[in-house]
Automatic annotation (TrEMBL):
<comment type="similarity">
    <text>Belongs to the PspA/Vipp/IM30 family.</text>
</comment>
<dbReference type="InterPro" id="IPR007157">
    <property type="entry name" value="PspA_VIPP1"/>
</dbReference>
<keyword id="KW-0175">Coiled coil</keyword>
<feature type="compositionally biased region" description="Basic and acidic residues">
    <location>
        <begin position="243"/>
        <end position="261"/>
    </location>
</feature>
<feature type="region of interest" description="Disordered">
    <location>
        <begin position="217"/>
        <end position="261"/>
    </location>
</feature>
<dbReference type="Pfam" id="PF04012">
    <property type="entry name" value="PspA_IM30"/>
</dbReference>
<protein>
    <submittedName>
        <fullName>PspA/IM30 family protein</fullName>
    </submittedName>
</protein>
<feature type="coiled-coil region">
    <location>
        <begin position="101"/>
        <end position="188"/>
    </location>
</feature>
Amino acid sequence: MGLIDRVSRLVRANLNAAVSSAEDPEKVLDQAIMDMQEDLVQMRQAVASAIASQKRVQQQRDRAESESAKWQQRAQLALQGGKEDMAREALVRKKTNTETAASLSAQLEQQSASVAALKRNLIGLESKISEAKTKKDMLKARASAAKANEQLQRTVGNLSTSSAMGAFERMEEKIQLMEAKSEAAAELAGADLESQFAQLEAGGDVDYELEAMKAQMLSGAAPSQGQLPAADQPATDPPSRPQDAEVDKELEALKSELDQL
């Protein structure tokens, strides 16, 4: 007997757990409102039936009282006509209708109390349904918010935040490397251009100095060898430059040496 109870309790527990897990709050609330509305329809039908029955009893009572009064008049009429037997029969009919009217009056009082109670219950049920609808809307809104929050938390939980941030960090490092390469290429290009101009400037100065030395040597060697400079080659001194002071000194020294020859 104990084993059967334990198995029964286990089965009920599993069924309750399965039902609880399968319950959708919104569907359960909607079904509860539908059940209450069905009860309200049945209550209204019961109230309508009770009121109809009350009216019938009231009509029957009114009819019995009317019949009682009518037989009362007939009994008086029979006595006035000297017909005592008819008067007695009329009084018997009157008594029957009077008793029926009294019984119907008692029944009518009971039905009136029952109808009043049914009406109060109907009003209470309507109030509860109205309150339940308002509460249902609030609970459904809370359930929807809870579902949305749960879905959001599940989505956030499924996101691989560490891998995403790692991707950002890798891309940032890659972009920094690209920027560094670009800056280095720009610096190299600028340095190469500067070096080229420096070579051109240096080469120009050397060539200029070389031509000046050649011209000076030719002009200094002409008197000693008895040769005149060509007509199409006028002797021109290169313009002196402040930055070539040392070169000028060297040229002067060379000229002195050539004059001593």
